[in-house]
Structure formats: C-alpha cells, structure tokens
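User: I'm putting together a teaching handout on how multi-component assemblies are represented. Below are the sequence lines for each component of a complex, exactly as they appear in our records. Could you produce the 3D structure of the whole assembly as structure tokens, so the students can see both representations side by side? Please keep the chain order the same as the input.
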Amino acid sequence: MSSVLYDKPGPKAKLRNWIYTGVFAVLVALALWWILDRMAEKNQLEADKWTPFVTDSQVWTTFLLPGLVETLKAGLIAMVIALPLGAAFGIARLSDHAWVRVPVGALVEFFRAIPVLILMIFSSALYVMLGTVSSDLRPLYAVVTGLVLYNASVIAEIVRAGVLSLPRGQTDAAKAIGMRKGQTMMYVLVPQAVTAMLPALVSQLVVILKDTALGGAFLGFADLMSMNRQISANYSNTIATMVTIALIYIAVNFTLTTLASALEKRLRQSKRGTGAVLEGDVAEVDAGGASGVGKAP
Amino acid sequence: MFDFLTSGQYDVLGAFWVTVQLTLYSAVGSLIWGLMLAGMRVSPVPLMRTFGTTYVNVVRNTPLTLLVLGCSLGLDQTLGITLAGGDSKEIGFRLAILGLIAYTGTFVCEALRSGINTVPVGQAEAARALGLSFFQVLTLIVLPQAFRAVVGPLTNVLIALTKNTTVAATIGVAEAALLMKEMLENEADALFAVFGVFALGFVLLTLPTGLLLGWVAKRVAVKR
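Assistant: Of course. Below is the structure of the complete assembly, with chains in the same order as your input.
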C-alpha cells in the first residue's frame, strides 16, 4: 500500500495520516449531518417517503421498471443505428479520395460540435413538421435521432482512432501480399480495430444511456428520468425518488463501465492481435501512457 | 427566412452569453474541484482515496440531467438551499453551475490522474530522495509536468462542458437550448434556419477553443 509519490509511512507519518483521516472524516460527517438535518427539517427523512420503494411493488411495476425499459430501449436502438453509420463515416474519413474524406470529415466535426440536446430539440420539431410520426412515439424518435446524429460522429472518431492505432506493418504486409485497399481494410484492419475499440464502444454506450435522460427531462420521453415527476406527485417524496432513480442509473452504468475496463485489461494482456487497445472515454480523456507515477496504489 | 433574427423578439446573443457564462464559471469551479479530487485519489490517506474513488465512480455514472434537476428540485425546491438567495432565475443559474461542477470535476480528475501517469517514475523518486513531502512532490514536481500533458484532454473536457451547459435548460436557465425550443415552437416554418443559427453558435464556441488549445497543447507538451 504505497506509491512512488510518497515513502512508506514511518511512525511519524502514520500518526500524521491518522490525524488527516480524523479531520477528513469529521468534515465529511459534518457535511452529511448538515444535509440530513436539513432533510429532517423539511420532513424528507420520514419513513413513508422511503418505504414505497421497498414495500410497494407498484412503484416498481408501474413507474421505475417501465421507465428503465424505455431508457434501455432508446439507448440500444441509438447504439444499433449509430454503430454501422459511425463505422462507415470513420472508414470514409480514412479514404484516399479527398472528395470522400473532406465532406465526411466536415459532417463528423459539425455534429460533434453541437450539443446532443440541440439535436434532440431539432429532431422533435422536425417530426412535428413532417407529421409522419404519431405523437406518442415522437419523443422516442426525437431522442433516438438526436443520439444517432451525435454518436455516429463520435463512433466515427473511435473507429478512425482504432484503425490508426494499429501498427503500420499491418498495412504494409497486406500490401505485400497483393491486397487491394478495400481488402486491406475489410480483412486486416477493421477486424483488428474492432477488438481494439470494444472498451471505447462500451463506454460510449454509457454516455448514450446518460444522454437519454435529456429526453425524459425536456422532451416528454417516458424514460426512467421522467418518472421522478410521476412518483413524487404520488408520494411527495422528491429526494427519495431522485436518490432511487440515481441508484438505478448508477447500477446499470457502473456495470457497463466495469465491463469496459475488464475488456480493456483482457485485451492488453492477450497475446493474440497487435496489442493495440483504445481506452474508454477517448472522447473525453486520453493522455495515453500508463507507466508513470500515479498508478493506483 | 431569417426574420426572427432581426425582429428583436428573441435575444439570441443574450442566450449564448448565458451559455458562455455558465461554461466559464463551471470550468473554473470544476478545475479546482477536479484538482482536489485528483489530489485525494493519489494521497497517502486511505480514507481520502476511498472518498475520491467512490465520488468519481458514482457521479460519472449519473446522468448530468439528473444531477442538475436534483440540484433544482431537491436542493432548492425541497430543502430550500438556494446558495445566497435571489430570484428564481439567479438561483437556477447558480444551481446549474453547481451541478455542472459536481459532474465535470470527475472528468477533470480522471484527466489529471492519467496525466500524472505520464510523468516518469524517476521524477517522483528523485523528489522523494531530496526529502520532499507528498504535498511538495505533487505540487512542485509531478503536477506541473502532468498539467502540460493534459492540456489536450482538458480541452476535450472543456468542449464537452460547453455542450453540457445546454442541460441547464431543463431547470429553466435562459440559455441557448431553451431559447431554441421556444423559437421552434413559435417559428415552425423557419425550422432549418433556427437550427442553423444555434448549430453555428455552438460550432463558433467549440471550434476555436479546440483549435487554440490544441495548438497550446502541442507547444507545452513535454517531449519524452
């Protein structure tokens, strides 16, 4: 239990660490006590505000579970449509022909620069104008369209980074045995890139699931997020409902995040393939290199 | 087609100014909060490490929408925590920033931690051999080098933050996304023009940031 940032604690440092632990624990406890006191004052700690989630199965069957199903549905549909679209864009951005590469690049950069909520609001208004989608389905369509437009361009970047992460020798070897450009891409680069980018794709699914909540809060999509209004209208327990909904989101997303890092670890250790791995969250965090100072103690 | 811009009925620039303000305040706040979280996650005190790790794992996996709505419905409307009062507009603005800082701080923390990983082990070992304490090693030796490595990733976080400020629309902060929704309801015939204006606004906000800071990132990166 030591890291390169500090020496193994001796008697003095141990005492100091205990003092820091004590001070920090008191600070956290004070913050918690303040918020709980505030909640007690506003009657948010009363048992009947929290027990419905344990005793009343109707809360789950009428609100939470159907909401979760809608959330997962929107997320999965968006992923399934965005994946091939993104792969096509990503490969097109690597094309040797400028007339393919440049317009696709501009398209990808454009949709990556726009907030997903703007895209959802636009899609919703577009479906209203077209009038082809019934009003019950419109929120789902708008959410999925917004997510697809945004995430296809993010996935395009992941695919591009995945292909570029492969060693140069792969292309050279494919050329040497006489493969065409298309064959090199289809048989050599893409299959290897897919394994390299699996962790990044799973992380992107988490981002998509989190973004579906925008539809629930803003566009009347009946997802898990939107259930907070309905449940707290019935039981007037805003905070308990928020906490429960947050826990469900965290449980689903934490499982996926853990899966992504397990995949990443497995791929890094695997002897097969080139050992190229794209970390999760390429879009948000990517400093590369994991040999240095701050390795988890 | 672009009548809505000249009619004086909508304050598009004003809405984008609110977006910029949200971005700037949240960026400063989440940089500080992220730095504190990163410090906790590499510190020698186990309780701080546990707190940092748990906080990051919990908040990163919560939708930002839920955090911002929770700040508004939970803190303000239920518990009456308004952060210095004022009218509902000011309270919404401040609570949106609070939610954005709580969320973005975790990404800043993870970026900084991966930056700390790029600093060679020898640097910290040499610093310890000189007798520097943990806090000195971190602030004098490791973080200055780590920061130079993470300008690029932090730029991505800043751009994501700029786009995430639209979530404040869900609690009624009068920024770009909320105005766009209002305009689309009233000017349905100018759908594409309205979308174009707002899309252009965000491209103009995020593209120069990316280009400028991308250039800075290349200049300051430590060649290893």
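A couple of points students might notice: Chain B is about 80% helix and 0% strand. Chain B touches chain A through 77 residues (CB under 8 Å).
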